[in-house]
Amino acid sequence: MTKHTLLAQQVDALLTEEPRLITNLANAAALLNDSLSNVSWVGFYLYDNAKNELYLGPFQGKVACMHIANGQGVVGTAFTQQKTQLVADVHQFAGHIACDAATNAELVVPLTAGDRQIGVLDIDSQQFDRFSAADQALLEDFAAVLVTHL
């Protein structure tokens, strides 16, 4: 068995035997918000295949954009490319969507279980260059464990 980070182990223990998507995502957002420093928003966007867009899921933070077109902004780009987006300065990201004008850095991790594209984990910070390669690895591990509960 792969040794996961403590945060991934915590989400695994927290969500064990809970089958409800919204319940699991709500607790996962709360766990991340409580565990990470210098973040202003933590949440999920879920994919709606019929509309080809991402819609707002459970989150912790300020009011957010409710719909993001597939391929648009950091969130839509991460989802379309199925590749984590680590953005040190969102103002330099072509097509950035400013749901919160105070956001300066963002990390978005796709949530995929096998061939099923669920959505993304989105984390914002008001601090420029807040997220590192170590943060990316930590949150990709977290997301890999999380999707086993979705």
TrEMBL record:
Protein name, per record: GAF domain-containing protein
GAF domain: residues covered: 36-144
PANTHER family according to UniProt: FREE METHIONINE-R-SULFOXIDE REDUCTASE, GAF/PUTATIVE CYTOSKELETAL PROTEIN
Signal peptide: none
InterPro entries xref list: GAF, GAF-like_dom_sf, Phosphatase_reg/MetRdx
Family: Belongs to the free Met sulfoxide reductase family.
Domain of life, per lineage: Bacteria
